[in-house]
Write a structure and sequence with these properties.
Elements lengths: L2 H21 L5 E7 L17 E2 L2 H13 L17 E5 L1 H23 L3 H9 L6 H4 L9 E18 H9 L22 H12 L7 E19 L5 E5 L7 E4 L6 E3 L31 E3 L18 H6 L8
Parallel strand pairs: 3-7, 4-8
Antiparallel strand pairs: 1-2, 1-3, 4-5, 5-6, 5-9
Helix pairs in contact: 1-2, 1-3, 6-7
Length: 329
């Protein structure tokens, strides 16, 4: 199946799930649900506070159903901004299985999109669905088994992605207006200021100084996002402690399980500086090789050369099922 076919299948299945949840709304047990207003601007200001409201009654049920099934953009919603309704909900067993099924369909779409190695091909798929939020369509709902405690919190910091220089160059060249123009260094004198082409060609010029086989890292700020520490009991009665999956939509579990202890999500107070674990980036040189790209070289003793070993994309569904075993999604 093509990515477009997978998208159609997912949308139809989410419609079925929405109908089933509406029919069973009196059987849903909302143990927690929080409302967060959508941003009015695309860029995230990490210093700005974020207000959280506690949802109750029919209002909470409406938002939980919407969070688990909606991939449609609101009239004023930017595609880079997503609906966020963190929470925890017990569902009848049949509905839990439907959520698992839609998760698998989301994963199928994710894999199909991943197979489209060119960014322009991925964009062309989403352009077939202008009313759909691609971010919401690919977002999995975490299904838990026997959760005993869920502690919501705001996470900040930064993330790293490792590249081989040759692969990074190839990825950037593919985004140029003329992808066949692949021989840097480029003459930028006739390239318009502040254009995407000028930015890409300037960065490609910078990469010329690095060995093609060297591995480097791009460090990106992680804006405030919601996670939760989840404690659970496995099928043998053993405690599973310490998983911290992403939590932009409600956790789902069988309504027959005992309600977990919930530590509520509170307002994000804003931050003047990102909190970092001191060892996160110890292998990187202190100063970026290219500050515009946030590109760092590894220190001597930590340098690697050759292709970057990538995690199999087939593991995404496994990461979902292992979310109570300490693997983030």
């Amino acid at each position: 199946m093509s990515a477009i076919d997978h998208a159609h299948t997912l949308i139809a299945s989410l419609d079925e799930l929405r109908t089933a949840l509406e029919h069973a709304r009196n059987e849903l047990r909302i143990d927690a649900a929080y409302g967060i207003d959508m941003r009015t601007i695309v860029e995230v200001d990490p210093k700005a506070p974020i207000e959280v409201s506690q949802l109750e009654g029919d209002h909470a049920v409406d938002f939980v159903i919407k969070a688990l099934t909606s991939v449609t953009l609101e009239s004023d919603q930017n595609p880079r901004i997503t609906l966020r309704v963190p929470g925890a909900v017990g569902l009848p067993a049949a509905l839990v299985e439907q959520v698992r099924h839609t998760n698998q369909l989301r994963n199928n779409l994710y894999l199909a999109m991943h197979d489209l190695t060119e960014a322009r091909n991925r964009r062309s798929v989403w352009q077939k669905f202008p009313a759909i939020s691609g971010l919401q369509a690919l977002r999995l709902a975490v299904v838990l088994e026997n959760p005993t405690r869920i502690s919501f919190f705001w996470a900040v910091g930064s993330s790293l992605k490792r590249y081989q220089v040759a692969d990074l160059r190839k990825e950037m060249v593919a985004q140029l207006p003329d992808p066949t123009d692949d021989l840097p260094p480029y003459d930028l004198r006739n390239v318009p200021e502040k254009s995407v082409e000028r930015r890409l060609k300037g960065q490609l010029n910078s990469l010329v100084a690095l060995p093609a086989a060297e591995q480097v890292a791009i460090r990106r700020p992680v804006r405030p996002h919601i996670r939760a520490r989840v404690d659970a009991i496995d099928e043998h009665g053993h405690a599973i402690i310490g998983a911290s999956p992403l939590a932009p939509v409600p956790f789902v579990y069988d309504v027959s399980s005992r309600p977990p202890v919930i530590k509520a999500l509170t307002n994000y107070p804003g931050s003047s500086a990102e909190r970092e674990k001191p060892y996160n980036h110890a292998q990187l040189e202190q100063e970026p090789f290219d500050s515009v790209m946030n590109l760092y070289r590894y220190k001597e003793g930590h340098k690697r050369f050759g292709p970057v070993t990538k995690q199999s994309k087939q593991s995404r569904s496994l990461r979902l099922t292992k979310s109570t075993e300490g693997t983030d999604i």
